[in-house]
Design a protein that fits this description.
Layout (H helix, E strand, L loop, with lengths): L1 H27 L12 H26 L1
Helix pairs in contact: 1-2
Length: 67
């Protein structure tokens, strides 16, 4: 039973993240890569950290607006 609740909660979190992704991307303000040019590992890590921070802000914004 606990496992089912955990899986449901995880699916809920993923759905929430995907719904907030457009807002998160706008808040992060990350440029797209040029065609045929990939980011290196360090650049990807910086982008991931930016997205994490932007997601927290997007989620907080939604919670504030809902009040």
């Amino acid at each position: 039973m606990s496992s089912e609740v955990s899986v449901d909660r995880q699916q809920q979190k993923v759905t929430e993240f995907l719904r907030l992704l457009p807002l998160t991307m706008e808040i992060a303000g990350l440029p797209k890569s040029e065609l045929g040019r990939n980011f290196n590992e360090g650049q990807m890590e910086v982008r991931v950290n930016s997205l994490k921070a932007a997601y927290k802000l997007a989620r907080q914004l939604i919670l504030d607006v809902a009040k």
